[in-house]
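Human: I'm a chemist; would you kindly supply sequence and structure tokens for a protein?

Assistant:
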Amino acid sequence: MAGLALALAAALLVIHHRILKPEQDQPLRRAVPGAADLPTPTAARPAGDGTEASPPLDESSPEPTGLVAPADAPGHAPDPVEALRQKAAGRARAGKTVEAINLLEEGLSRWPGQDLLTRDLSRMFALRGWERFNLKDYDRALGFFSEALYYWPENHEAMRGAAYVHYQERDLEAAENLLRRIIDQGGDRPEVYTLLGRICYETDRLKQALHYFQVSLAQSPEQPELTVLADRVRREFKVEKDFESLESRHFQIKFEGRKDPAVARMIEEICKEAYASVGSRLGLYPQLQITVILYTDQQFSDITRMPAWAGAVFDGKIRLPARGLTHRNNTLVRIIYHEFTHALIHDVTRGRAPVWLHEGLAQIEEGVDPGRARAASILVKAGGPMPLTDLEKEFVKMPKDKADLGYLQSWLAAVYLEDAYGPYAHRDLLRYLGQGDDIRAATRRLTGRQFETFDDDFQKWIAAWAQALP
């Protein structure tokens, strides 16, 4: 029987719960049990700190796990059922997943309520969900996870998958409810604590986030990215634990209360103006509240590891060195508009926008306009432009002089999008990214052209403008 369990574990691929033709591989859209309106469990929960914070889930998709229940588990199957499971496993191993699901469904029709068949089917739905998740097909992924939970409501792998989908879709409350339900049922896995920590970080519960990261690292110490993040959260909590907060519907402004209440109110007003202005121009608005944190120069350097002369940073939150700010000025307004644009893009695209699109739109919204011909001429004389795919790879590694050229090309790319594809090009491209497309697919939907062709047309447009300069 152990051999059967291993065979099925290796074979868990893609299944749908009805007898279907391959082209009908669509999940039913059942509600995910426990995704909403669950009581918040108290197990494994640290004392809250009342604070709140953010980065996105790392790009590497979590690997699904879960073995088929061994045959000596409760509800031991009769031999004909075991034979059917073996046969279904063989079909799945061969990639004939529709045949496998048909066999399992036939088995359930012959032995209604047979626990092992039902759980096998649930696990297969969960793995089908992970496959769609890895392809960023979140809608269908959630459908398959829902199917898995329909057949077996305690399938932790399906709960975790549904939580990851909700996280990607920015329904953080639903994701957190599912993760806490897993923990409450004894699902003690590092991936669960890591995602729960990220949600706490994004909702600015720093103490809880640090607790969950530490639990995850205690279970699985070899997580270098999480180690770095936990160290950062520890620094943030040390600096911000006594900060006060000024909250509105769309913004939370955090600051040292005894020093900066007037400055915080001024920052909040500029943020509200940016929300109205940038949102109106793009026709898009962020769904989640945006956190803005005011630091002293030293605090800013300690948290961001960037020099205090940097204007600001957006890394899921807008971090702003106050530098003795006492009144509104044009530089401050430009910086906030720029960083708010990053926050909006990150929110509406679920973190899928490339750097060049981020920086191009942020510059437009802050009011940068060097002129098409002048910008194109500078870029061409410096040996550019480079293909956008190369710009994306190199941007973060560029020295300052090259980075200036990267910003210039990014601005030109954003301008070109509107010049070539109309006033709604920015809005539509961001929407497509938010719907799950990567930049290549989103560009193809917008332009009707392959990304390489779009990029080649952009390069020619730059060359034409460079020649237009007297």
Notes: The first helix runs from residue 2 to 11. Residues 1-24, 33-73 have pLDDT under 50 and may be disordered. The two ends are 81 Å apart (CA to CA). The first strand starts at residue 244 and ends at 247.
